[in-house]
Amino acid sequence: MLLKEKESHQSPAASLDAPPLSDAARPETIAIIGAMDVEIEKLLPDIQNRQEVTLRGHIYHTGTLCGQNVVVTRSGVGKVNAAVTTTELIKEFHVDSLIFTGIAGGVSPQVSPSDVVISTALVQHDVDLTTFGLQPGLLNGFSDRHFYADQRLINIAVLAAHEVVGEDNVHLGIIATGDQFMADRQGVRNVYEEYQAMAVEMEGAAVAQVAFLYNKPLVVIRTISDKADGTAHLDYHQMKASTAHNSSGITLKMLAMMKD
């Protein structure tokens, strides 16, 4: 039976001031992030003992989902929102691993709307320090422009996605991130040719960079809502609800598998 939503009567500071237990002394807590409400709303009714904590305008839903301790939140769109939210999840909620779930535009010719792309690595396609002799997408101080997903989480995500959408509709590959909604063919072609990306979106690589800095395992799961070309705006609005539903289903399957 689903429990009725509960509001926390503690202040955020009061609920978060206690020092964290050591990793060995506490069960794993998994962060689940979506950029928009539609990407997490199907998960919220199933969270047991759900409470809400609000920090800097973001609502974090805590409780258990499929037997796992979780913190579920909407980050907001874009790299800064995603990075701030990920930092809060790690520093304030002491999460052990991160799953970013939602929708994206298809870049590779191999993917079609409703297909699922599971990240092997993520890159920021809007980073350009080539004037200083760096590769496109490479940040100063880093030796690699990619931020890599965790292999264990990738394996679980693949198994879960196969069950939800079928093996033929699941792809592994690079996801490109930038602070723009890509909707032109030339831009898509440039991202594909430079990064060999399967999909493009606006948050994943920022989450992955923070996860890398804090040494937290991460995977990004994106269901393709559009082809990120001249028809992207129309396709996106037609597809976002159904594709977000697929992403939520995969997340729930993952949590059940991680518990087992």
Automatic annotation (TrEMBL):
Return the InterPro entries for the record: MTA_SAH_Nsdase (IPR010049), Nucleoside_phosphorylase_d (IPR000845), Nucleoside_phosphorylase_sf (IPR035994)
Q: Where in this chain does the record put each Nucleoside phosphorylase domain?
A: 29-255
This protein's source sits in the domain of life called Bacteria
- The main enzyme category here is hydrolase
Q: In which pathway does it act?
A: Amino-acid biosynthesis; L-methionine biosynthesis via salvage pathway; S-methyl-5-thio-alpha-D-ribose 1-phosphate from S-methyl-5'-thioadenosine (hydrolase route): step 1/2
Q: GO CC terms for this protein?
A: cytosol
List keywords of the entry alphabetically.
Amino-acid biosynthesis, Glycosidase, Hydrolase, Methionine biosynthesis
What Enzyme Commission number(s) apply to this enzyme? 3.2.2.9
Question: Which GO molecular function annotation, any one, does this entry have?
Answer: adenosylhomocysteine nucleosidase activity
The protein's name: adenosylhomocysteine nucleosidase
Supply the source organism for this entry: Parendozoicomonas haliclonae
Gene coding for it:
pfs
